[in-house]
Fold this protein.
Amino acid sequence: MELLDGKMVSLTIKDELRREVQRLLDSGKRPPHLAVILVGDDPASRTYVKGKLQSCEYVGFSSTLKRLPASITEEELLHQVRRFNDDPDVDGIIVQMPLPDHITPQRVTQTILPSKDVDGFHPVNVGLMTLNFPCLMPATPSGILELLDRYNIPTKGKHCVVVGRSRIVGRPTSIMMSRGGQPGEATVTLCHKFTPPEMLRQLCPLADIVIVAVGKPNLITADMIKEGAVVIDVGINRVEDPTRKAGFRLVGDVAFDEVSQKASFITPVPGGVGPMTVSILLRNTLEGYLRHHHALGDFAPSKEPNE
């Protein structure tokens, strides 16, 4: 068994970005600029945003944090998003989720310009991704595929079971794994909350690659994994642990101790997919910057192999 070390790969990507930023600076250009909007005072959101800003500093990006009160109206928030849309010196925009209940996340997502949507959530980017056109790709699914690529794990012709169909992770991951290219070209089965448990237990042991993102601790057990399978665990769950100072520990959706005895590759939690998401957000910001400055061509369809 080999760990898919998201921390290590993420740092490698950041170092690649750092070198690219230095090249831009050496040629007299400004660095890429990421703008982050944080609404309210959720502790977890503050932590996530802090990590993103620290990563910007590491690679040499400029960054702006706009903090807004939880009482802000939806229209006031959308106005701030539009201000960043109109700012030519802003290359990427993130509105940290979750948002207060009175704000509709879909409206916020759709207000961000697709060319600055570094999360890859905008319907335009999702549509381009589905058609295998160049776009700003969904960050967490891209991080998953990047891990598979960096560890030279073949996916062509493999059976991949994706457990969870969220619009952020499961659904786009299933599409990306079935598209042309490497990683890709897999036969994909998508399971979700309406998949009967007995069916899930039948399908998972057939998979060469299992990707799980549902938010249920230890949902996937060793009897659901075949010998030598690749297991990607996107889940991050808090479980009580009185032996820990914080009173809890983080676990994934996969029962790591037992599944790791059968898997050929497996992601740890934490330290697997999570760090990859941040590095892809930064890479998307650089891509947005390069397209704004015409260093990359316009979005154009890539060659899709015959189905």
Notes: The longest helix spans residues 6-26.
